[in-house]
């Protein structure tokens, strides 16, 4: 019999602003290079969230936000790849939105984070991993393999900015936990079922999400960029970025999880309502 889940505190950190092209949010099957070339409008400015998760056995940071260094000239590659980055997204990171400042506002610090997990390696999720020195950084093995590709930037991975970390690639072995049987496997962070990483590929080949089950409060699913809005997830609408088929399958599995865990709250990295959803969970 599984022991009761512990009390777990989760805080949303506001690590900047991003605006993207509409197809980055609500896809219709348009090839990415085509809409990157032809898009003329932007989304509203959206938050860049990271999540501080306090478990009795340690403090975990899920995603690390956008680095203020990304606003400096030369951060992005030159040539066509750099043009694609700049065409697809624009960022703002004010001083108060820096990760160190956000952790301080939450009563924590870089030194007090015991473990980091990144949903994927794009710079608005892994952009601050270098701040953590020898602190272990969990990511899926498939995502970690992107760092050794001939040109990781073709996958949206800027090795110069996200490559320096104490990465600990994780696998997703089959789980006996019936509540997450819809996933091919899982990685139980502390071994008590409270914090469980599950594969949700599609946005990138190794994207993953974090399931948080806690005493006295609604369960949470931190999904990174699987969706920008849980309502789109429910409708099966995925972005025109990455592998749409894989995203639709990951979305289907998440919808099944929602049916299995009544009250589950989905928290997306760029959802303007994420903090409100968390506060009411």
UniProtKB/TrEMBL annotation:
Entry's family note: Belongs to the metallo-beta-lactamase superfamily.
Keywords: Hydrolase, Metal-binding, Zinc
Highest taxon listed in the record's lineage: Bacteria
Protein name (Swiss-Prot/TrEMBL): N-acyl homoserine lactonase family protein
SUPFAM superfamilies registered for this protein in UniProt: Metallo-hydrolase/oxidoreductase
Pfam family membership, one: Lactamase_B
Keyword Zinc: yes
Known cofactor(s): Zn(2+)
Species in which this protein is naturally found: Demequina capsici
Molecular function GO labels: hydrolase activity; metal ion binding
Domain Metallo-beta-lactamase intervals: 47-270
InterPro entries found in the cross-reference section: MBL_superfamily_lactonases, Metallo-B-lactamas, RibonucZ/Hydroxyglut_hydro
